[in-house]
Amino acid sequence: MSKRILVLGGNGFIGSKVVQKAIDNGYEVVVGCRTPQESKDFDWVKIDALDEVSLQEHIEDNDYYAIVNCIGILFDNSSKLRKLNKLFSGSGNYAKEDNENYENIIEGISMCIFDNAKSNTKMVFLSAAETKWEKNKFGRIFERFFIPSFLKEYLKRKRTVDSKIQNDKRVNIFYPSIVYQWKQVWKIPVVMMFRIGSLFLPIFYNPIHVDKLSNRIIKSIN
């Protein structure tokens, strides 16, 4: 197999695992990110995905078998918790500028990929299990009264993207809840809480190990 794929955010927590799984499966991998990730196993291209023009030009100028978008942000500037992203980001990046917000990072980047990908290019996007809260009464009540406004905006942007791309046959959308690996010791209490909670309450979804998620992502484009 010599199929070429682009992994955006390939130096992040999930992205780096997707890159390794892709290499293990024989793909020719190009990692697109803002910070250098040179490796003998993959090519690296500097891409600031928030620069819509340059991202569009790169997608149009290259013939990729698949594009996997692993760029995301849990806390933007509006949350006042932006530095906490360092705990979730394998690259250590966090929102530093005003344009690094949910609208641009979650919706803008995803739609730029979707709108400019070639007709034969497969695409993978990461959403969130919690977007499904709107589908059950208990979830809607919980979101309305207990979720802070900035996370409501996060879910709103995820749902907007999902609604626009989900019917395209080129697209695979994944809906993970907590993504973990055991060496992230600080996540263990949260993982256990979600595992137990998923047995009783529809607002909790079973966490998934990053290796299992990345393996499923690569299987989806095989």
Please provide a written account of the structure.
The strands form 2 sheets. Strands 3-2-1-4-5-6 form a 6-stranded parallel sheet, sandwiched between helices. It has 7 helices and 8 strands, in the order E-H-E-E-H-E-H-E-H-H-E-E-H-E-H. The protein is α/β, with parallel strands linked by helices and 222 residues long. It has helices spanning 13-24, 52-61, 102-116, 137-146, 149-165, 188-197, 210-221, and strands at residues 4-8, 28-33, 43-46, 66-69, 122-126, 171-174, 179-180, 208-209. It is 39% helix and 14% strand.
Kindly list the characteristics that best describe this protein.
222 residues; alpha/beta; 7 helices; globular
In terms of topology, how is this protein built?
Elements: E1 4-8, H1 13-24, E2 28-33, E3 43-46, H2 52-61, E4 66-69, H3 102-116, E5 122-126, H4 137-146, H5 149-165, E6 171-174, E7 179-180, H6 188-197, E8 208-209, H7 210-221
Parallel strand pairs: 1-2, 1-4, 2-3, 4-5, 5-6, 7-8
Order of helices and strands: EHEEHEHEHHEEHEH
Strand content: 5-15%
| Distance between the amino and carboxyl termini | 10 Å
Strand line-up across the major sheet: 3-2-1-4-5-6
Question: How confident overall, as mean pLDDT?
Answer: 90
Number of helices: 7
The major β-sheet equals:
6 strands, parallel
Low-confidence stretches at least 5 residues in length (pLDDT < 50)?
Answer: none
Shape: globular
Radius of gyration: 17 Å
Structural class category: alpha/beta
Please estimate the helix content.
25-40%
Count of distinct strands = 8
Can you describe this structure in just a few lines?
This protein has 222 residues and is of the alpha/beta class. It contains 7 helices and 8 strands; from the N terminus they run E-H-E-E-H-E-H-E-H-H-E-E-H-E-H.
